[in-house]
Amino acid sequence: MATANKLSIIPCGAMHADLTFLLLKPGVSIMPRGEKDNTINWVEVPTHCVLVETDEGKLLWDTSCPSDWETRWKPTGLQEFFPYDKVADDEYLDAQLNKMGVGLDEIDYVVLSHLHFDHAGNAQMFKNTDAKLICSEKEKEFALNFEGDFNGAHLKADYEGLNWETVSGDTEILPGVKLIQAPGHTVGCMSMQVDLPDSGTMIFTSDAVYMGESYGPPAAPAAIVNNLEQWFQSVEKLRGIQGKTNATMVFGHDAQQIHELRKAPEGSYT
């Protein structure tokens, strides 16, 4: 079995949001009448990217949020609901790559799990590089063809004017790196499976599964879901792959799990 060589999880700080956006679960974000006067549960929403190194090139998975989030997101109003306000200057993606000693010109592939504002926020950094920018076919079709400047968390300023290549179906893109179609959160959301020689299989769910509590079982959906039936099918698809590969699941925005992972620039997986 082909494997990747090295994987680095790049932490990029955190947003904050009402937990209800992330988790619709009785007793956690959906409360009984006895707790109707409780305030909202405002939680950290960490954001990360992943750098995978293989014999055939380096791949960056997702690009996190932009440093100019407050002004860029203003037309959408999302800055009031998902403020990217727990991030140090050296935690933005460009600063993290710089600390890792990785130049933009060294990255061969930039794969976007989907094109929401907190995953495609720095895609324009790669406009004048030789990196291949990749998303799923259905995601591109939707994200570039709606009316207006934004639709929900899709913000055209993040990704317009870039040369997007697409994949459809589950695709092995590099040795040990497979893109898994996992729609539901968006029409073309993807997860990524990486097989490593020592660490085994890791699955990066992106927003197909927000956090461990979403994964269950039973799976608990979120407020931001494009198609609930597809969402449940995607979670169970990922659960099936995990069962076959004994994969370590890395969830899209799990505020507890992010502290348990080895993180760049100090830590990595091989």
Please supply descriptive tags for the structure shown above:
270 residues, alpha/beta, 6 helices, 13 strands, Metallo-B-lactamas, RibonucZ/Hydroxyglut_hydro, MBL_superfamily_lactonases, metal-binding
Fold and architecture overview:
- The strands form three sheets. This protein has a six-stranded mixed beta sheet. Strands 9-10-11-12-13 form a five-stranded mixed beta sheet, with helices on one face.
- The chain has helices spanning 69-72, 93-100, 137-143, 156-159, 212-215, 228-245, and strands spanning 6-18, 42-54, 57-61, 109-111, 132-136, 150-151, 154-155, 164-167, 171-174, 177-181, 190-196, 200-206, 248-251.
- The protein has 270 residues and is α/β, with parallel strands linked by helices.
- The model has no long low-confidence stretch (mean pLDDT 96).
- It is globular, with a radius of gyration of 18 Å.
What's the arrangement of secondary structure elements?
Layout: E1 6-18, E2 42-54, E3 57-61, H1 69-72, H2 93-100, E4 109-111, E5 132-136, H3 137-143, E6 150-151, E7 154-155, H4 156-159, E8 164-167, E9 171-174, E10 177-181, E11 190-196, E12 200-206, H5 212-215, H6 228-245, E13 248-251
Parallel strand pairs: 3-4, 4-5, 5-8, 12-13
Antiparallel strand pairs: 1-2, 2-3, 6-7, 9-10, 10-11, 11-12
Protein name: N-acyl homoserine lactonase family protein
Domain Metallo-beta-lactamase: 46-253
Keywords: Hydrolase, Metal-binding, Zinc
Counting helices, strands and paired strands, the structural category is alpha/beta
Biggest sheet: strands, sense, closure? 6 strands, mixed
Number of continuous helical runs: 6
Radius of gyration over C-alpha positions, nearest whole angstrom: 18 Å
What shape does the CA trace take? globular
Which H/E pattern describes the elements? Answer: EEEHHEEHEEHEEEEEHHE
Indicate the percent of residues in helices.
Answer: 10-25%
> What percent of residues are in strands?
25-35%
End-to-end distance: 15 Å
The total of beta strands comes to 13
Mean pLDDT: 96
Low-confidence stretches: none
Strand order of the largest sheet: 1-2-3-4-5-8
